[in-house]
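Lab notes, practical 5.
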Amino acid sequence: MNQTRTPRSGRGHRRGLAPLVALNAALLAGLGLVEFGPVAWAQPETSRPRGEYTLVGGEIQTGNSNAVYIIDSVNQEMIVLRWEDGRNILTGIGYRDLDADSKSRTQR
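Output from the prediction step:
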């Protein structure tokens, strides 16, 4: 009943390791392409500057719901979002170009 065990050869162990090494190499190459690749084609050369946002909550004159006013001070824009309780979503209800508004006031 004395059985001797033969040591496992490293061959089976290496066979399972080769696909993992190949997969890691492919993932690393893909990461390199994304990181060092060209800028997205859909974005224009003169892209929009990164905004600085201020959020202010308030009531809407029509109905009994509340709204969130989001102002981008860098790009001079404002949007208004309303919370819909029944659907649990924010719905856009308004947009203003504050830069255009300020220019139209000086022309009066």
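Observations recorded by the TA: The chain has two helices and four strands. Residues 53-106 form one domain.
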